[in-house]
Amino acid sequence: MFNKIMIPTDGSELSTAAALEGVAFAADNHSEVIGVYVAPEYQYPVYVEIIPPTYPIEEEYDALMRKVGMEYLQPVQKAAQEAGVQFSSLILFSNSAGAAIAEAAQEQNCDLIFMGSHGRSGLGQLLLGSVTTKVLNLCQIPVLVHHITKKK
């Protein structure tokens, strides 16, 4: 039913658990998976005329965030390999993760976005996490929201 499923993660425990469930769902449906991590855009220091020597330059920040993204996507990739699911990864830069996910899913011709109800923001939101809510509001394809409670 679904040929290509986008599975975003922010590297948090809840997001990773949901992503792993997404891989199992993809395996059951014989679907391809695109794992996605959205890093915040580079921010120049505010009210500073020159960049301090200890502040990373944009290229260093970009490389670091790509490395972090690949580390966060590694468990998802491993689960996909073990399940025999075709996997590719995508690192995006945006200050609006929800909008970036919705746009990327459309650009990648995904049939479904499988994501957790909460990620880094945790369970503090009343109903859904802010990124999940944004994706639901912006997306033109189905979004499967998987709810995982934090293990004690």
TrEMBL record:
Pfam families: Usp. InterPro entries: Rossmann-like_a/b/a_fold, Universal_stress_UspA, UspA. SUPFAM superfamilies: Adenine nucleotide alpha hydrolases-like. Residues 1-145 form the UspA domain. Belongs to the universal stress protein A family. This is UspA domain-containing protein. It comes from Oxalobacter paraformigenes.
